[in-house]
Write a structure and sequence with these properties.
Layout (H helix, E strand, L loop, with lengths): L7 E6 L3 H10 L5 E7 L58 H14 L6 E3 L1 E10 L5 E9 L5 E6 L1 E4 L21 E4 L13 E5 L3 H11 L4 E5 L13 E4 L2 E5 L2 E4 L4 E3 L2 E4 L17 E3 L2 E3 L1 E2 L3 E2 L5 E3 L8 H16 L8 H8 L16 H12 L7 H14 L9 E4 L6 E4 L3
Parallel strand pairs: 1-2, 1-7, 2-3, 7-20, 8-15, 9-10, 9-15, 10-11
Antiparallel strand pairs: 4-5, 5-6, 12-13, 13-14, 16-17, 18-19, 21-22
Helix pairs in contact: 1-4, 4-6
């Protein structure tokens, strides 16, 4: 008779989209005993809109970076988890954050996940301990935010799902302390009316910079979009101007890298976020240097202690389907249905392969090979083809139609083999 294996205790940190995906695959598996800790009183992570900024009711920094009128910058159809295809928006194909939150709530209800989540429980520390048999154990300190009582629990594995859009990255700008107007990061932006009639300098022209800029000009603001990347080559509203990056600030005068000067009364950082794991003890071995996290195999597995994974690190991807692939791969490792390559191979995989450290985890077109490699190594199904076909079609369409691309018509064929997209004017 086969020896009965004890259930392995797995800790999931966070009940946003990545955490919910982790529970969905862990909970039905009889090999695991799962505990999920969420520091707020709700599921959804960054998709939970909060009017307040700065601190929440527990005195903790507000986690969500959601603004009131945000719509997704990807078609809802390709944002679905592959095992819960319930978002079917055709036109407009991009949906509101409320619709994504409802989708996550329905996902949690469909898979009966809420009973596994402990709300208002903050993970304060995760520390590694090695047993006399040489096995890693994780000592997790949890604080009940209602009672203030702390407890320590020992786990066999850790899934870090704390999200990556809550710790604003603010680059140093000479003289910014002299700026006489409002300074804000997009993390704290909520609605455009607050900036009506203002002249706003937005630093950064990725998704949030462009989105927020377009919102502001519709409410009478004059917007300068400052960045050093390739020019957008798109028709922009008459009160929105693309300019070079910022060199320095003197009072309300902003000096650009081409030596031109802009006078503004709002300076908004749309400069992204820092990966942050304040609860991880140093002995966990995870290091973050200018947003380059090491040592991670496949942007996921702690190489030195592979019973820990960090879900959702890759950027410029379709997130929910990727979470699905990452979670299934990690569980295949825990169940010994998959094995890791030699340490030297994993370290080589984790080496910096781009010029800038902060771009180390950008996948973009590499996301498809990445997802396929997880499926093949883990012994489970690859993502359906329409994700890649739809994303590629979408990326090219968006590039030439920044003002209206979210209103496009996006249709996936019944067999999932083709995608049709029609842009709006």
């Amino acid at each position: 008779m086969a020896e009965t294996m004890r259930k392995r205790k797995v800790c999931v940190i966070g009940a946003g989209a990545a955490g919910l995906c982790a529970i969905r695959h862990l909970a039905p598996n009889l090999n695991f005993e799962t505990k999920v800790y969420e520091q707020t009183n709700d599921i959804g992570g960054t998709w939970v809109y909060r009017e307040i900024t700065r601190l929440d009711e527990n005195g903790l920094p507000v986690h969500s970076s959601m603004y009131r009128d945000l719509r997704t910058n990807l078609p809802a159809k390709i944002m679905n988890f592959p095992d819960y295809m319930e978002m079917n928006a055709v036109q407009p194909c991009c949906v509101s954050h409320q619709e994504i939150r409802t989708y996550l709530q329905n996902y949690a209800t469909h898979f009966d996940l809420l009973k596994h989540i402990q709300f208002n429980k903050r993970v304060e520390s995760v520390r590694l301990e090695t047993t006399s048999e040489g096995e890693d154990r994780w000592i997790v300190t949890i604080k009940n935010l209602n009672t203030k009582i702390k407890e320590k629990i020992i786990f066999d594995a850790i899934m870090v799902c704390n999200g990556h859009y809550f710790d604003p990255y603010v680059p140093a700008i000479p003289g910014i302390e002299t700026f006489s107007g409002m300074i804000i990061h997009s993390h704290s932006y909520r609605k455009p009316e607050d900036f009506s009639g203002k002249t706003v300098m937005i630093l950064g022209a990725s998704a949030s910079g462009i989105d927020i800029g377009i919102e502001l000009v519709n409410h009478g603001s004059w917007v300068y979009l400052s960045h050093n990347n390739e020019r957008l080559n798109n028709p922009l509203p008459s009160n929105m101007v693309e300019v070079m990056g910022v060199e320095r600030i003197e009072g309300d005068r902003i000096y650009l890298k081409d030596q031109s000067v802009i006078v503004a009364n709002v300076f908004m950082f749309c400069t992204g976020y820092r990966y942050s794991f304040p609860f991880l003890d140093q002995n966990c071995g995870i290091r973050v240097n200018d947003n380059y996290i090491t040592p991670l195999y496949k942007h996921l597995i702690n190489i030195d202690h592979p019973t820990m994974c960090i879900v959702g690190i890759p950027s410029i991807v379709i997130p929910f389907p990727m979470f699905h692939m990452q979670v299934k791969y990690f569980l295949a490792l825990l169940e010994k249905k998959a094995t890791l390559p030699p340490r030297s191979t994993m370290l080589e995989d984790s080496e910096l392969k781009v010029a800038k450290k902060r771009h180390a985890h950008r996948l973009m077109d590499n996301q498809w090979n990445y997802n396929n490699s997880l499926a093949d190594a883990g012994g489970f199904e690859r993502l359906p083809k329409f994700y890649k076909i739809g994303y590629d079609l979408w990326a090219s369409g968006r590039k030439g139609n920044l003002l209206h691309y979210k209103n496009a018509k996006f249709v996936v064929s019944a067999d999932g083999e083709s995608v049709d997209m029609v842009l709006s004017n």
